[in-house]
Design a protein that fits this description.
By secondary structure, this protein is an all-alpha fold. 76% of the residues lie in helices and 0% in strands.
Length: 409
Amino acid sequence: MKPGSKAWTVKYTLLNATYFIAFCTVHAYAAVFLLAHGFSNTEVGILLAVANIVSAIAQPLVASLIDKPGPITNRGFVAFSVLVILLGSVLLMFIESNKVLIFVIYAMIYMIQFAYQPVMTALCFEYQKAGCNIMYGLSRGLGSASFAVTSALIGGVVEREGVFVLLIVNAVSMAAAAIIILFFKKPDGTAAETDDSGEPGAGGNAQGGKAHNNFFEFVRLYPAYSLFLLATICFFFAHNMINDFMIQIIRPLGGAETQFGYATFLQAILELPVMALFTLILKKISAKNLLLISGVAFLIKTAILIFAKSMTALYVSQCFQLFAYAVFIPASAYYVSETMEELDQVKGQAFITTAITVGGVFSNFICGRILDGLGVKPMLLTGTAVNAAGVVIAFIAFCFLKRKSKRMC
């Protein structure tokens, strides 16, 4: 099978699909699962925050290890992560009431899933450079579609059958991922080459240069990107607030687990057309400007919930996922690919995911406490204010640091 075959896109799409099916059951339904096992909102926030902190530390470390010659590869780390999550899911099936064990195992699964997300992106770039024609935008969009379908189907099942079904779906998806990664082998003897696919990493930067592993040197070289990481933390403070505590936002509006499934389906399925067509969008609007647009969309999405009186308003809010997360994810990948030296790109992808994770850390700690102490509305006001600060920071990064961040060719 030749490296440029469409089969590579199919295999990478299946890898994304299994990842996001598990991501849905673990991340989107985290509060549902943990509340059903006797955790309070504050305890849910602490668990997710701990998992996010460990993940935020692990992601750049893993990226640095993969960048260096040695036994740790993108494919190897993905395989390791899949097996750990599979084992953890099976163990949770046999634990009913031990909150300490549930805390430890669930936090581990949650952390590992975040840690190998940027490695999945780097895996695509690596194979593209080896001549494997993978359509990143389409594969990533179909991954989101798998999240959407899972969420739509699983909500009603969980409401009827209980949260145990989440573990079954997670274990099955990870077992499938283990089989896929086993056959996801880069063809021998394929040299890095440039193609005209328009996908990130397809052509890549010029060979040579050096990796900038010193954080302060990295910040000096990429000041706009580094400041934008702070804006990313703010965006995903609000984004994670909505996702992690969605069930608590929905219940005052008259919804339950079934409506939770519909809401997450809506936002996830809207990601598919944007991600699939992103190469065409990028020809009209730069990655930098698309990131600014996404920040504003995150803000509108969050602000709408402050005034929501019914599930209709919540569904309208979810529709802004079309311009928020759906734009941010591919735009950030292209931005890193376009502005960074080749040997810095794995770290660049990892730092984006780390910033997303750090946003989740602050969201989990702060929003869980606000929710328990003050309620839903104050939590939404806090998220909106933090998001607004992120929009301001993003404009400063891209509009005032533009010249400094221009890469020397």
